[in-house]
Amino acid sequence: MLLDETYVVFDLETTGLYADKGDSIIEIGAVKMINGKIIDTFDTFVNPNVKLSSEIISITGITDEMLVDAPNEEDAVKAFIDWVGEYPMVAHNAKFDISFINSAYRKYNLGVLNNTLIDTLGLSRYLESNERYHNLATLVVRYNIPWDEEKHHRADYDAKGTALILDKMLKKLSLNNINTMSELKRYHSIILKYNNKV
Fold first, then answer.
1. Whole-angstrom Cα distance, residue 113 to residue 23?
2. Cα(44)–Cα(25) distance, rounded to whole angstroms?
3. Which CATH homologous superfamily contains domain 2-192?
4. Would you list the domain boundaries of the chain?
5. Are 158 and 136 in contact (CB under 8 A)?
């Protein structure tokens, strides 16, 4: 049953928008959640070995000084994927986040990522097709989740917020008679099966 699964809900902060044009990860934040409860957390800065732009510093609050002693991207992604295991992975606008994970897999010859990937953006569009906006700041209001906008765009905080949204969404799916992963996999905008061969 979907509600009984353990999920890894994650978020990345990056040096820019394009994994395939040289941008890289600067923070990985994630939680493991089961039955609406967070049971474990993962959070690390990542040293990209380049200076951050003023725009990225302004958006994330992350500075070059905060990244000096952080692991490099290869070691950080290896540690994260080891922590994830085989659990389904969840992100908001998952195509963005997984593009950076897959880019790291290719750059560092880490193999193939085969975890099921759930996109809460696609899930929101499915569950609330009459609504116009589906960004994270909108969804925390819609689902009555406590939110501090000042902490938005930090990976650990956004991952926790997305996890709480996911729990509410899974309950709504149950009301729509979608109770298993195989039933959810029929909706390709929600379940994304990405790996670095694609």
1. 20
2. 10
3. Ribonuclease H-like superfamily/Ribonuclease H (3.30.420.10)
4. 2-192
5. yes
What radius of gyration, in Å, describes the C-alpha atoms of the chain? Answer: 16
**Residues 82-137: tens digit of each pLDDT:** 999 999 999 999 999 999 999 999 999 999 888 999 999 999 999 999 999 999 99
Quote the pTM value: 0.93
Q: Are 105 and 166 in contact (CB under 8 A)?
A: no
